[in-house]
Amino acid sequence: MASDESSGTESLLKYIELLLGKGMQEEAGIQLQEVLRRDPGCFRAHNALALLRANQGHLEQAARHFQDALALQPDEVKLINGLGVVLQRLGRPEQAAACYQESIRIDPYYQEAPVNLALLLKDHIRLCAAQRYLEGALRLQPESVRLRYNLANTLHLMGESLEAVAAYRETLRLDPEHLDARQNLLFALHYAPQISDRQIFAEHLAAAGTGVLSPEPILSPVAPSCAAEPIPSRQAASDSAPRRIRIGYLSPDFRGHAVASFIEPVLRHHDKSRYEVFCYANLARPDDSTKRLMSLAERWRDIYPMGDEEAARLIAGDRIDILVDLAGHTAGNRLPLMARKPAPVQATWIGYPDTTGIPQMDFRITDGLADPPGTTEHLHCEELVRLPRTFSCYLPPECAPAVAALPMLAAGRVTFGSFNNLAKVTPEVIALWSRVLLAVPGSRLVMKCPPLADPELCALLLERFRDEGVAADRVELNPGDASPAEHLAQYGRVDIALDCFPYNGTTTSCEALWMGVPVVTLAGTRHAGRTGVSILTNCGLAHLVAQTPDQYLALACDLARDPASLQQLRFGMRERMAASPLLDGAALTRELEAAFVGMLAGRRKDRFKQTGNEAAL
């Protein structure tokens, strides 16, 4: 009889596998419950039902079935790891971490557990611990792509630029088609001063040659290229008036993100009588900023669920004249979509400080300060289009508090500050900031960014300052604030902002200026290192741009010794910014529209064909 029951259970489990294979989850769940009614100790049924309930989002049920399965097979690492995933999703990080650690103890070669544990630790800003677990797992499995890639991401967040670059390169040695590693490598290269502009360009060309970034162009259902038509004579099918130019903006950052504060003024000021504006949003989680941006676009397309081919055909079907990428190689980008050439003219702008490397991108929009004429053209596949004044405009947050009093007057000492991404704070930056602190007696430095919630990482940074002769009590490491208003209010504690290099701040510099804090920057040789030049010059503060580290030191010290000038700058800064090109969204949009007309009327210079790349280097 027992044999018959066992045979019946086995047949039912095979039937359930078929149901799951066909996506019939509800029916499979009913049948699994029937198996457990007949045989409450069936391990396979508990395991299958745990996975099914987790997939359906019924997390408490999933956790119970994982626990029931573990009661039957307590050393099964996949079950323990699966329970950890569910507990993490339920908001129980300590219990989840214990599961991952137990999986590692039982089977150190099971790489899912250290990866999940590292991701959990990263989410809770314990980057040094995440690094340790990943490196420990890699000692056992040095050829693991997943372990190596996650280590690279962790190192990058910690500001270990060169180590991150090496880990991304090793990931690509193991898996040359790993697109995320390839693109993260390109981004990370900009943070390390040891890597030359030509090396960075060569890496972009190499990335563009990989399969996913070099697909066949789509066959557009709307044939003619608008770029070949004279703009004034283009007619709508049923109207004698010229057809409006169709501009498409493609971004993963139409949300509470820095890019949104630079694109919103343009969406708001486009001349709707001449331009029809489409936004192609690659958004997993829209927010309140998304809703505001949606109201400014005539056509909003959600392409997040779409594959590259489907999204490219949608764009081609919309008959977009110019498609503008706002992400480059940053997270959430759709460059493989752009590589399918769904629009006759394509440009990249704002979101990434360099060439995309893909030949299907015709133009990159910049200005003559961030990319001085004759200096960076040879480092781009795109033709550079320089706007007359500034490459972008800034939208100050409505929540920004009033400018606070100059803190040095009450504190009796100078406070320098940097609220930049920690990845920008390289050893070279720490060395120069330390020189500034040592040259201004009693001065302090406030650094603020989320990774500074990690006490181990803070200890490491303070040790680096001590190595440069700066006592730990002169450096305050702050993880950040709960709201944008609280974040901006912290500038009330800062007298002078110190910019990073070779990757300058952009949003952080604009925020500092809006809160009345002058910024000292060091001019670099490429766009990422010259945004400070553009921002400060456009605000009439070109005298705060240093050309050498020694000049940077001198500028910071001169400001620190002149409270009267700091006070005057602080309380005149908003008026200065409001009168500058940086906040003149209407004028910048007219300049951008003129650039679009020029792109359509002309032809791209094909300077970088496949056979010519080597010569360009």
In short:
With 617 residues, this protein is an alpha/beta fold. It is 49% helix and 9% strand.
Helix/strand structural class: alpha/beta
State the total count of DSSP E strands: 13
Low confidence ranges:
1-5, 219-239, 605-617
- Which sequence of strands runs across the widest sheet? 3-2-1-4-5-6-7
Mean pLDDT comes to 89
CATH topology of the largest domain: Rossmann fold
What is the number of domains? Answer: 4
> In DSSP terms, counting alpha (H) and pi (I) runs of 4 or more, how many helices?
26
Task: Write out key terms for the chains shown.
globular; 617 residues; Serine Threonine Protein Phosphatase 5, Tetratricopeptide repeat; alpha/beta; 4 domains; disordered C terminus; disordered N terminus; Rossmann fold; 6-stranded parallel sheet
Secondary structure layout:
Layout: H1 2-21, H2 25-38, H3 43-56, H4 59-72, H5 77-89, H6 93-106, H7 112-123, H8 127-140, H9 145-157, H10 161-174, H11 179-189, H12 197-208, E1 245-251, H13 258-269, E2 275-281, H14 288-294, E3 299-302, H15 308-317, E4 322-325, H16 335-338, E5 345-348, E6 363-367, E7 383-387, H17 407-411, E8 415-418, H18 427-439, E9 444-448, H19 455-467, E10 475-478, H20 484-489, E11 496-498, H21 507-514, E12 519-522, H22 531-538, E13 545-546, H23 549-560, H24 563-578, H25 585-601, H26 613-616
Parallel strand pairs: 1-2, 1-4, 2-3, 4-5, 5-6, 6-7, 8-9, 8-11, 9-10, 11-12, 12-13
